[in-house]
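Batch manifest, entry 17 of 40.
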Amino acid sequence: MQATKPAVRSAVIILGMHRSGTSALTRLVNLCGWQAPKTLMQPSEANETGHWESIPIVRINNQILSAFDRQWADPKPIPEGWMASAEIARFRDAAFEAIAGEFGNADRIVIKDPRLSHLLPFWADVLDDMGVAIRVLIASRNPLEIVRSLRKRDGMKQNHGLLLWQSHMLSAEYHSRPFPRALIHYDDLLDDWLQSLSTAMSNAGEPIEIDDAVAARIADFLSPRHRHVRISSDVALESNDLATPFQNLYLALHNSSAEFAETDFDRLRLNWLTAWEKRSEGPGASQFAGELPVKFVQQSRKATKTGRDDEALSLARKAIDADPNIARHHHYLGRLLIKAGMFDEAVLAFARAIALYPRSAEYHHDHADTLRRIGRIDEAIIAARGAVECNPDHAEYELHLGKLLSAQAHFEEAERSFSAALEHGGYSSQFVLPFAALLRRLGKLDQLEAMLHGYTDAEPADFIPHAEMAETLLALGRPGDAFEAQSEAASLASAEIGLDSVPDDATFLHDAVADAQSMKGTKRRDALLTVLAWWRAWCLATAICDDHSDNADAIPGDGIWPPELCPGPLSIPKVTAAEPEHNRPLISVLIPVFNVAEPRWLRECLDSLLAEAAGTQDFEIVVVDDASTDRTAREVSTAYGSQISYVRNDENLGLLQNHNRCLELARGEFVHILHQDDLVYRGFYSAMIGPMQKDDSLVAAFARTRMIDGDGAFASEQPCIGRTAGPLEDFETMIAGRQLVLFPSIVVRRSAYREVGGFSPSSTFAFDWEMWSRIGTAGRVWFDPSILCAHRVHAKSATNSLDAVERLTDGIRIASENAIRTQSPDPKDILSVAINRLLAREWRAVIRQASARPEPEIEEKMWEILVGESCTQEFRAEFLALICDT
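Output type: structure tokens
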């Protein structure tokens, strides 16, 4: 194809005005053997065969022009001396990287960008340093054709287009003088590309020979159908539409090919510079800079619709360059930047939009959401408040603000925002569920129940509010009412996925997998899981309760899942009395420990106890060390001197038996087991023990608990099951539905522990839930709705080490024991809602796990419990793909 291989690297630089054939010329040179850039702008409606421009090089050129207050559509000359300015030096490294990255070590390269007409000295300097020789081809076209094309593409006015053409062509001619060059006319290229291209390349010092294969490719590429406007040169030279300066320049170009009458061009250039000194004084941009933005945005939107995202972003930037004072264009750019994952730059774009037009709620909202994405929540709250101030009746803006406020624990304001969102947006899951989560977090379940009644009334066919109601009623200790709500939720969810009623076998699962397309969507997935969890819960509860009805000594769960998951009847150890009986303290606080997770947590725990015990002899505080392998527990405890007792077991007893060891060591009338990472607040013991001292029928008292994280920061608050302090009616039934009592919150009479026995070592996860249920059989239980203690939630917790199978099976087993213990005429109603909650929780965990790992490994046993039957790996994969596709 080429006659000889060059001795040095060479670059053919294509100069000329936009719409003058520079793209076509570049492609022809590329097909003749000169390597095009790797990162090309995508073809567009205005240039279907491609722009053949390097994205990195164009980006640098835009930045250089911007540094001198110019952009591509401004015909005003760049200030004299720009190459010697300090500004230009900062672009050199990026230019070197762009050339190396786009072309590698190719011997022959072709570079095109109309901006190079102005910036050739900069790139020539860079290429020279890289040992690349420069050849220049200047594309020339009838200016009337160009301005008509620009009017169609960009909405550019004729005078603007002619001034821009004049600027590009005079700059291209002037800056190309040091290099071998040729001018090639667009008409000649289309009429006889072989002759015109061969002549031009030879005149530029790069003679070519084109074989038949290359010729065929060029002929296929260079089609006259891509030429949308044609005006003869004679018309242009005689037209009244072309002022004398433009006619003179076109005539000079028309008469040039290999030879340029530089004296004529010098005169034209001088007149051009003089005219601009009068037209636009000073170094700043001209008035033409802002004439094209709307057209760019329109083209950008079209590019976005057809997936040309890079082009869309480039066009949006051009709109900003054309006029940086249009707020909506900054906002549009911000949205494109979000799509491209360029969040920091998007934040700046939205901020500029707001600065230009601060009354747009949409601008504030998008600014807030982008700040949220990059973790700048406090700033996001300020922006979200701005959106609400601009449009206080917009439900989604209030909702967004509420979510941000809730994340930062600004609960009162969050509650107001969620309430306003619900008022403006009406009852739908979009507005109800985040509000429900906040009310649960704050323990305001009576308020939540009222809201959910409104939701069910407004949307009677929606399963979501009924499922939420069931969860709320369970938390309120009303499993019977929860059963009715969950049954209704399952019935409505069945209808959502096309079933006539709640199924009685697993056929519906296989049908769902087989017809996965019809199950797409988050709501249908949630409906499927609602039906699945309730169906399985009812099956398990029925089997367990029927077995017990037939045989009161039957082990709950025996025969339902493998024997290793049901190790035998629940064993209850006796609690022996601590000696001596005299001189007992009123309160024994026992702290079971093993290998203290964080010494500061234990210190905070002990400090909170001592603050309560100050000035009284009624306390004993004992740290019970289960043969830790380090000395942390001993060192922390003994540092408090006689205020804290430290007892170390001779051997490791394990988590459960160390709790029972605590019960054996307790000497006080009232016993409080407090874990090493939890806290009590002032007034806890008086609120718990006072009622029991006055009423012997009370065997235990508990309060609400605040959840905190490892640093002690607020996480959530336990639900409130009653508005006023007092004894709970039918505590056994209340707690059978779900765990209501956390360890730090409950104080128990020692005599009650002796009556009902210790913690069952047969349980591994839900042993405390089982214990509190048994405590309820010994007498009445007092509840105080005040927040009087804190439970620390962290990854180092002992129960977090249990796997999902162990948590689920132990939870179902203890739920079974608790439900049967209630002596309810039909305990399977209570048991079914308890199991449903456990199954739903594990399904959520499965979804998170499956979303995090392409092929999650879930044990066969787990699948048998969750799905109700053994299933193949193929079915598992298909089912997980279905339910995890949100």
